[in-house]
């Protein structure tokens, strides 16, 4: 893959053995959930498109090399750190919310006006 336009959904591929670039659309890619990546090793068939240009079809991702798997492992470690940071931030947010709620409850209890209990009998018997 030598070029890709994400907005339009097409790009070009250059065969590994050399030769002209070949037009490719998003529909030619496998539906494995991964989008096209530049410099990704692919296998494909070349056919003549509707307009007569060469077009790549039936794309398949080639197995990754050791170097690619090392990059994937490093990328995975980065994602793990991001997930860990998100969890830590979420816990900190929950803790901060609990502290604020506790402070509000304590403030409300201390500032709530305390009225002495009125004995109903004493109030009825009291002289006016």
Account of the protein in words:
This protein has 128 residues and is an alpha+beta fold. The protein is rod-shaped, with a radius of gyration of 34 Å. It has a three-stranded antiparallel β-sheet with strand order 1-2-3, with no helix packed on it. β2 and β3 form a beta hairpin. It contains two helices and five strands; from the N terminus they run βββββαα. Helix content is 41%, strand content 20%. The longest helix is centred in the last third of the chain and has 46 residues. The chain folds into two domains: 59 residues, OB fold (Dihydrolipoamide Acetyltransferase, E2P); 49 residues.
Can you summarize this structure?
With 128 residues, the protein is of the alpha+beta class. It has helices at residues 66-111, 120-125; strands at 3-5, 10-13, 22-25, 42-48, 54-61. Residues 1-61 form the CSD domain.
Name the CATH architecture of the largest domain. Beta Barrel
Structural class: alpha+beta
Whole-angstrom Rg: 34 Å
CATH topology of the largest domain: OB fold (Dihydrolipoamide Acetyltransferase, E2P)
Fraction in helix:
40-55%
Q: CATH class of the largest domain, anyone?
A: Mainly Beta
How do the strands of the widest beta sheet line up side by side?
A: 1-2-3
- Mean of residue pLDDT values: 80
Number of DSSP E strands = 5
Largest sheet: 3 strands, antiparallel
List the secondary-structure elements in sequence, H or E.
EEEEEHH
Stretches with pLDDT under 50, minimum 5 residues: none
The fraction of residues assigned to DSSP E strands is 15-25%
Number of discrete helical segments? 2
Whole-number tally of structural domains: 2
CATH superfamily of the largest domain: Nucleic acid-binding proteins
What form results from the Cα inertia axes? rod-shaped
Terminus-to-terminus distance: 99 Å
Transmembrane segments: 92-112
Keywords: Membrane, Transmembrane, Transmembrane helix
Biased composition (Basic residues): 55-64
Region (Disordered): 53-84
């Amino acid at each position: 893959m030598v070029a890709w336009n994400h907005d339009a959904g097409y790009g070009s591929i250059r065969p590994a053995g050399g030769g002209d670039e070949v037009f490719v659309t998003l529909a030619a890619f496998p539906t494995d959930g991964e989008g096209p990546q530049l410099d990704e090793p692919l296998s494909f068939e070349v056919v003549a498109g509707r307009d007569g240009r060469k077009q790549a079809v039936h794309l398949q991702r080639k197995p990754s090399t050791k170097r690619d798997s090392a990059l994937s492992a490093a990328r995975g470690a980065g994602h793990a750190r991001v997930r860990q940071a998100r969890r830590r931030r979420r816990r900190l947010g929950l803790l901060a919310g609990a502290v604020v709620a506790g402070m509000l409850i304590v403030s409300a209890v201390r500032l709530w006006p305390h009225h002495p209990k009125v004995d109903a009998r004493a109030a009825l018997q009291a002289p006016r």
